[in-house]
């Protein structure tokens, strides 16, 4: 999570308040996780995201998890060690709550994790789950992008910079804060700026610019001859557009999407595979798998087929053994998870329909106002927005701003009592 990066790694001291103003995920995850542990944290959050606030625990097939992260699928010792590291990692946040009050909190990154019969079960604390269930944080969980990184420092820098891509700069961080974000605080070697710059800053910047969808450039601030602060200028990388998961109904209407769902693939993972590999390639692997007989883990086999481009000459022989108790348990857990996900999807569809109806009402209300009133309404609403991201969205989309939907409906309900009733 950001360490799945979720690395929502965050800042401390005066920088926290600046970050809160920009509505950036103000969650700091201690930075001493390895690259594989960061990737594991990302995949676990990706798997749990849809049910993050509605389910107390989450499950995933352990072999599938290992393969997605890059472990040997039989290396359960490394997987156990990495899960232990996540459970021992502290997440801390300091931000404004939904009522505008300052809120501080701390939680372990995973409240628990266990491996039973080939299934990994894990959970987040309720308070942390609420913080992680945020579209701005989900945007950071990019399995496609993270696969390009070969160092934890490069991935950590990417995650911390990408959070500020809309503003074009991270803002100034003290070197102490930067060392914490990179997980090298407490190292006497990196107390020297010469060593920090040569081994961390330059190498991490080079990897981000080579591997990611943004280009960053460090700038330094000095006091006398000593460097005291660092910030990164950020722009999009035109050579590598950000891999985006298409949340539109278009993807869910594709035959290949429905075929993936029929194989037990989650909604989010199905959309991710289609966006990353393309409809034709995914369908090709589905067709190939049909001729391979029964496999123990459909999702795991498909993941490997997509990653390694299985064909008749390259794919390993599937295990023809009858389903084991482990496989039955995995299938049952997946079926239950899929049912819960389908139910959640229906609920979201109803919610989207209701929101669309409210936006139509707002559009009608706006059309009835004269030009002077419309201008005053916009200025009044803009003044009520707390951060740059919300204001930027409203400036671009006006009263159709999805990011500000709740605030827009509350504004017009107060301005036109009864507008949304009846």
From TrEMBL:
InterPro entries tied to this protein: Initiator_Rep_WH1, WH-like_DNA-bd_sf, WH_DNA-bd_sf
Gene3D superfamilies: Winged helix-like DNA-binding domain superfamily/Winged helix DNA-binding domain (1.10.10.10)
Initiator Rep protein WH1 domain location: 19-161
Superkingdom: Bacteria
Gene Ontology MF: a single term: DNA-directed DNA polymerase activity
BP-aspect Gene Ontology terms: DNA replication initiation
Family membership noted in the UniProt record: Belongs to the initiator RepB protein family.
Name used for this protein in its record: Replication initiation protein
Source organism: Phaeobacter gallaeciensis
Lineage of source species: Bacteria, Pseudomonadati, Pseudomonadota, Alphaproteobacteria, Rhodobacterales
């Amino acid at each position: 999570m950001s360490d799945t990066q979720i690395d929502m790694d965050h800042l401390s001291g005066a920088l926290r308040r600046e970050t809160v103003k920009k509505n950036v995920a103000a969650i700091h995850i201690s930075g001493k996780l390895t690259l594989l542990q960061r990737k594991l944290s990302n995949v676990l959050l990706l798997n749990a995201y849809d049910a993050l606030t509605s389910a107390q625990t989450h499950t995933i097939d352990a072999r599938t998890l290992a393969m997605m992260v890059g472990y040997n699928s039989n290396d359960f010792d490394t997987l156990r060690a990495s899960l232990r590291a996540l459970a021992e990692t502290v997440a801390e946040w300091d931000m404004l709550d939904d009522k505008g009050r300052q809120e501080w909190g701390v939680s372990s990154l995973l409240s628990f994790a266990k491996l039973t019969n080939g299934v990994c079960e894990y959970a987040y604390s309720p308070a942390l789950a609420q913080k992680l269930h945020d579209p701005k944080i989900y945007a950071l969980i990019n399995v496609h992008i993270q696969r390009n990184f070969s160092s934890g420092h490069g991935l950590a820098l990417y995650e911390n910079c990408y959070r500020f891509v809309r503003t074009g700069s991270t803002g100034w961080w003290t070197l102490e804060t930067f060392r914490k974000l990179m997980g090298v605080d407490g190292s006497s070697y990196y107390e020297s700026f010469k060593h920090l710059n040569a081994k961390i800053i330059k190498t991490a910047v080079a990897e981000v610019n080579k591997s990611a969808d943004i280009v960053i450039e460090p700038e330094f601030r000095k006091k006398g001859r000593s460097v005291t602060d660092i910030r990164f200028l950020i722009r999009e990388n035109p050579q590598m557009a950000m891999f985006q998961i298409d949340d539109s109904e278009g993807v869910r209407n594709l035959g290949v999407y429905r075929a993936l769902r029929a194989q037990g693939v989650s909604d989010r993972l199905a959309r991710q595979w289609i966006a990353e590999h393309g409809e034709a390639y995914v369908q090709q692997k589905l067709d190939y798998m049909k001729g391979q007989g029964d496999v123990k883990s459909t999702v795991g086999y498909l993941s490997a087929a997509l990653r390694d481009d299985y064909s008749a000459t390259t794919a390993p022989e599937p295990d023809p053994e009858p389903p084991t108790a482990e496989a039955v348990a995995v299938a049952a857990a997946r079926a239950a998870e899929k049912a819960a996900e389908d139910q959640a999807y229906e609920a979201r569809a109803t919610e989207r329909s209701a929101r669309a109806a409210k936006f139509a009402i707002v559009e009608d209300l706006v059309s009835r106002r004269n030009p002077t009133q419309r201008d005053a309404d916009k200025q009044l609403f803009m003044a009520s927005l707390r951060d740059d991201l919300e204001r930027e969205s409203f400036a671009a989309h006006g009263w159709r701003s999805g990011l500000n939907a709740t605030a827009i409906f509350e504004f017009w309900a107060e301005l036109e009592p009864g507008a949304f009733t009846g």
